[in-house]
Amino acid sequence: MKTKIQIEKKNIKGSLSLSGSKSISNRLLILQALSGKMSPLKNLSNSDDTQVLQKALSSNCSTIDVGIAGTVMRFLTAYFAILDSEIVLTGAQRMKERPIKDLVDALRLLGAEITYLEKDGFPPMRINGKNLKGGNLSIKADVSSQFISAILMVAPYFEKGIQLELVGEILSRPYIEMTLSLMQRQGVSHRWEGNTISIAPGVYQNSVKEVESDWSSISYIFEILALSDSGEIQISQVDENSVQGDQKVMDFFQSLGVASSVDKGVLCLSKKSNFKLPKYLEFDCVRTPDLAQTLAATACGLGVNMMLTGLKNLPLKETNRLVALKNELEKTGAVVNIIKDEALEVIAGERLNSNDFNFETYGDHRMALCLAPLALKAHSVIIDDAEVINKSYKSYWEDLKRLSFDIHLFE
C-alpha cells in the first residue's frame, strides 16, 4: 500500500493527542512482567513494537517471533535468560541480520545459556533460562544502548545484582538514563559513578500508571511547522520533565524557526514569524540518534545546509539509515555526503518546489515519517509503504489529515 500526500493550505493549525512513548512503554512492560504484576498503563503506546512485546510476554508458546521489533528482541533476550523456561527467539529476515553478539556474550559471562540456531552472533537463538548470579561485568559502551538497558532491567533479579562497567564512548546515553529513571520510579535504585552502574538485588513495584507522549513522534510535528508558512499546534499528554532524550527536539528546532513550550501537560508549538533561517547548522545527535532523519529532511525542505554528527549506530537500524537518507534526499536535488559512517552532510538543493516525489522507505518507519512532511514544499509526495509507520506512530496519517493534509492510500 502506498500513500500520496498533498497539501494546499500552508497555514497549519490544530490539536493532537499522540500515543505514549514506545521506548517508555516497552521498558515498563518488561519491568511489570519481572514484578509478576501486570496492570493497565494509561496512554500505552499503540505501536506494532509494543503490541508485539505484549503478545510475547503473555504467550505460552515455545517460539517467539518478534518480526522486525529490534527493541523487543534485545529486551526479551535478557528477560528470558533469567526465567525458568526454554524459548526460541526469532524474527524477520532483517532481524536475523542485526547483530546481537555483544548482548549475548555479556549474558553468557553472567552464566546465561544461549545458543545461536543459524548464524553465529545473530538471531534466532535458543534461550534456556536460569537464575543468574550477576556481579561484575564489562560491556562496550558504543554498542546499542538497548543491550545495556536489557541487562540493567533484569539486574535486580540477579543473586548479587550487578556492577556494570561501560567501556569506551557511551552512545545514546539518554536511553540508558531513561531506563534507570523508570527503574527508580518502579522501586529499584542505582548508583552511576564514573563508568560503572551498580544495582543491588530488589523487586519492582508498579508505581507508574501513565505513559507520556512520544517525543520521537512529536519531532515530525516540529518538522511540519518548520516547513509550513505559519501555524500553531498543541499536543496533549506531554511531560515537561520527560525522561526521553528526544525532548531535545525543542532546542534543535528553535534554530529552524519553531518556538515551543510546555504548560500543564500541553506542548504548544508555533512557527516564528519573520524568522531568518541560518545558511548552515551543525547538530550533534549522539544523544538523540532518532532525530537525525527528521533534521536531515527538514534541512532539505528549508534549503538549509546541515552537518549531523554522532550517527555511529544509524547503519545498524531497521535499514542503513545513512544510505537510505542519501538515496532519498538526493531526489530533492540535495547533495548528501556520508562521512566515516558516523556523520551526514546535507547540502540542500532547489528541486522541491512544485515537483512530485516518490520516496522509498526501506522498511523503516522513520523514513516514511520524516519524508511525508516534504509535501509542504513539493507538489506531492508518494511514500511506497504506508503501513510501515505502524511500527511506532500508527495514527500518523490520520493526524496529518487533522492538520489539513490530503492523504490518499492506493495499491
Question: How would you describe this protein?
Answer:
This protein is an alpha/beta fold. It is 30% helix and 24% strand. The protein contains twelve helices and 20 strands. It has helices spanning 22-35, 48-58, 70-81, 101-109, 145-154, 173-185, 215-227, 249-254, 292-302, 321-329, 365-371, 396-402; strands at 2-6, 11-17, 63-65, 86-90, 113-116, 125-128, 135-140, 162-167, 191-193, 196-199, 230-236, 258-263, 266-271, 280-284, 305-309, 335-339, 343-347, 356-359, 380-383, 406-410. The strands form five sheets. It has a four-stranded mixed beta sheet, with helices on one face. Helix 3 (70-81) packs parallel to helix 5. The longest helix is centred in the N-terminal third of the chain and has 14 residues, at 22-35. The chain is globular, with a radius of gyration of 21 Å. The model has no long low-confidence stretch (mean pLDDT 94).
Itemize the secondary structure elements and their pairings.
Blueprint (H helix, E strand, L loop, with lengths): L1 E5 L4 E7 L4 H14 L12 H11 L4 E3 L4 H12 L4 E5 L10 H9 L3 E4 L8 E4 L6 E6 L4 H10 L7 E6 L5 H13 L5 E3 L2 E4 L15 H13 L2 E7 L12 H6 L3 E6 L2 E6 L8 E5 L7 H11 L2 E5 L11 H9 L5 E5 L3 E5 L8 E4 L5 H7 L8 E4 L12 H7 L3 E5 L1
Parallel strand pairs: 2-11, 3-4, 7-8, 14-15, 18-19
Antiparallel strand pairs: 1-19, 1-20, 4-6, 5-6, 8-10, 9-10, 11-13, 12-13, 15-17, 16-17
Helix pairs in contact: 1-2, 1-3, 1-6, 2-3, 3-5, 4-5, 5-6, 7-9, 9-11
Largest sheet: 4 strands, mixed
Q: Gyration radius, to the nearest Å?
A: 21 Å
Secondary structure: number of strands: 20
Helix content class: 25-40%
With helices defined by DSSP (H or I, 4 residues minimum), what is the helix count?
A: 12
Helix and strand content put the structural class at alpha/beta
Average residue pLDDT: 94
Strand adjacency order, main sheet: 18-19-1-20
Give the uncertain stretches in residue-range form.
none
